[in-house]
Amino acid sequence: MTTSKTRKKLDLSITILIVIGIIIVVNYLAYQIFYRWDLTEGNNFSISKVSKKSISDLDDVVTIKAYFSELPSQYITLRQEVGDLLDEYQNYSGGKVRVEFITPENNETTERDLYMKGIPALQFNVLEKDKYQVVKGYMGIVISYADKSEAIPVVDNVSSLEYQLTTAIKKLTTDDMAKIGYFSGNEVLSLDKEISTAYRKLTEIYDVVQVDLEKEKEVPAGVKTLVIAGPKSKISDEVLKKVDAFVMKGGKLLLMADSIKVEEGLQAKTNDININKLIEKYGAKVNSDLVLDVNNGMASFNQGFITFSTNYPYWPKVVKDGFDKENAAVSNLESALFPWSSSVEILQDKLGDKKVSYLARTTDRGWHVTESFDITPQGRLTPPNERKQYNLAVMITGSFDSAFPEGKKEGENRSPETRIIVVGDSDFAADNFIRNNPDNLILFQNLVDTLSLDDDLINIRSKSLTERPIKELTDAEKAALRYGNVFGVTILVMFAGFLRYYLRKKKRFEEDL
Q: How far apart are CA 283 and CA 170, in angstroms?
């Protein structure tokens, strides 16, 4: 009996030593070989293939300096997450990315030097000796390559940090920035007032120039993509001919057109901008209607001194099932809001061999109105019995015939392979809607990128999306979830208890035998 006990103790000791040895070997190998498993759905905590390729193809060393002060306790986790992400850049670069964490001193010289680099001093509330005190600190990053540098002024989360870092590296290491033309006539959305947030984001990686085709003979040379966002007056045939000539040369076009104009007091009326004269030849048409959907956004309205919020069918909300899963511009999006959108129709007889991507669509329970536009929240909505799915944004790829072939030489009437995107709404990219629907900003950037950069940086940016709306459920499904949450855990615990009791009783019975 004693010998048996001794043998068991010896076996246990040997097993423990073997386990410890395995742990030591695994830790040593893990230290020598860098690899991470990211089990999140969107690989949110590891850098993408695009980032890995960008840093592995570098010709010279890129230096990343992270300026983080001794921060309050709520930011300690953030500093660790930033450090983990920068470690990935350093390890995957093969020595071409060097990372340095710096704790700045709190003095005027440091503050002035960092300000010149683009890193502002921030103010934090710190609880010390039972009272709050305001202290200064820094949470910024400077990326340097050769004699050029780019700053990320404030890093307050890591969800979009990879996109910012890779974009900055590409911007520093690329000699020529892609040029975007912004159509500036016909009362389009103002860059500095109505669409300033989207404009600032574009200038981070593009050279954005304003294009006034009433004064200029053609779209300036070097412009890769022309953006027309929300014109409110009729575009002349002469201007449309210049846009057509741009497309015939292989230029990309992003058209965000409102066929119904919403004015103060929620007055809606037809907006004749003449754009269909151009795009109908390409295979698309923006209809003179407003699309409604059972899946929609919340809108706030003022009535006297009272502000109230309500579901507003005139603001269709497209969720994951409504996006083209095969198109990188929208495949990773969770949702997007399209306020007062018109439907976009594909003209099959004009399409030919061109390919269509239905970027954003309503549910199959959408409907539209074509007259008597009562868009007030008190307006009576009577959905028709027959409803269907409507296109809100489409992309057409292929070779296009000119909409104005008269007077053109042979070979000028057909474009090389190119792409156009037509959206029946421009408000989705406006500041007042992006403020409450940040996914709309991602959508706008992705649309420009898919025309100008192909699919390069799109997938990185889309990783930062966090809104995951619950799919529409039936009453029975809602009831099942509700009662499952209430009673499910209790039933599982009881089942586990009965199972354990049965196993223990069975074991005792076997021992007694």
A: 35
